# Entry
Amino acid sequence: MHPKIFKAMNVKFICSIKRIPNYDLQFSKIGRSIAFSFLPLLFQFCIMVFCVPVSKAQFRAALVKTDISPADSQYLVGYGERKSIGIHDRIYHKIVALDDGKTQFFIISSDICLYSPSEYDKVVSRLQKQYGINPLNVWWTVTHTHSAPEVGPPGIYGVYMGNRVQHKIDSAYTLMIEDKLINGIIEARKNLVPARLGVGWGFSQANINRRAVDIDGKASLGLNPDGPVDRRIGLLRIDKEDGSPLALIANYPIHGTVLSDKNLQISGDAPGIVSEYVEQKIGVPVLFINGAAGNLAPIYSVYPTPAAGHLNQFRVLLGDKILEANKKIFASIDTVKLFAGSLIVETPRKPGLGWSADMAKYTNTTKAGINMVRLPVRFLKINEEVAIWSLPVELFCEISNEVRERSPFPYTFYFGYTNGWFGYLPNASAWEHGGYEVETVSPFTSSAAKDVTESVVAYLQGEMRNPSATKPKGRK
# Structure
């Protein structure tokens, strides 16, 4: 049993919580249900029974949803070079603003595939100069749908697959994305209202490992039902002061690849379809935040049409599971304290790999002549129970699973595809099998997984638990 110290509502109390092992492939259906139900129920029970506020800060929140569907044909990102011919389902920016009375924090989920870190830098620079918003407190995630327009310069994506970006980027669409994002953040800032926060876990089998390994040990893109997975759903629910819902944040790892390169219709793919379905059911927008989906595909993958890919079935496979988990969040709190942090992990760059000029700040060369990647990691702590970390990569799930297992926080979430895109970050054992993620679209070496894991775990166990006591190397 591992004691966890909670500080909800500024009052400390101790609960013994059993560490839940990685059970995604091992537990029976009943066992999984019990394991997932235990932790949130215990946490929420302790809040109601033991927490008597000593001093109460005003927690506020707001939600803005804005349509970013293009009005004309656009080049789509994620497969070979191709242009859209229509819209299957509309795509959006969804923005949540959180304010604990001292810190304002913004989480954005956009229905696009990826963008260069330089595009993030451009947007947050405008926010800082025009509105005084600290870039550390802005997380711009994407759902990773492969049926949405490109945004901004290709960055390192063009280094990996320059044949896909031989055309001119549509600067008008990019400007629209930027303006709607900035205007949405400012609108959310103006619309803050007293709020409450709840947290919980869910489970869905909508994803599957996609690293198919042949008898020669070589990996290729396919389906691997015996491969590692992460099937947890992490939920953050924001309610209004009266308990009615304001927004729901759902964190789940799944590639946005139900639809293949044959599809030319704009679509949010599975994340978009699921988000709209859950919104219809609960009456408020849902921010779908992708997780460590680098080696996780939807169970129906790369089909030419929505019907062929059973796209609507993900409303049941994942949407209904989000709804079930949401119903189990029966307690929320109105005293919230936010802490944002960051660090840079420096790890060797793949030998012989070029670099994109717009990403110059994200690399350097050692005195020994070794090219390094400077990978930015972000952290958000909510009270003493929730720790969220993020990276601008397509992370393999084994890494986020290990971090969660070693984290001292009962709710540890990983937000992928955040603040740009560097490519894939596989776990160490993946390198011996090769394949697309290792050979074609990663700037890293086999040491990167350990470099990132140990740095993140050390930060969670040190700086995040006691921000004033320690300041690890690399902290901004």
Notes: Residues 300 and 472 are 43 Å apart (CA to CA). The chain has a mean pLDDT of 90. The chain has nine helices and 22 strands.
